Amino acid sequence: MNEAGLTVTFHISESGYNELLSVHWGEDPNPSSHQQSAFQWTSFYGDLPIMQTISGLTFMNFFGRFPNIRVMSV
After folding, report:
1. Cβ distance 70 to 39 under 8 Å?
2. pLDDT digit string (tens) for 24-41?
3. Domain contains 51
């Protein structure tokens, strides 16, 4: 991938966080995407997974090790 200079795209999706963490907050662990509470949406489905992904790539020096791979979040 690095040699090809590919762009990797991330998109919001089910991260598995709902199933792992919702029960600890008294929420349904397997709601459909349209039946999640506001808490589940913001904490487990929306921003948090992509924030952790991008920060992991950044702080673990992914871009230093693979300088030709570009990342895009949509």
Report:
1. no
2. 999 999 998 899 999 998
3. yes
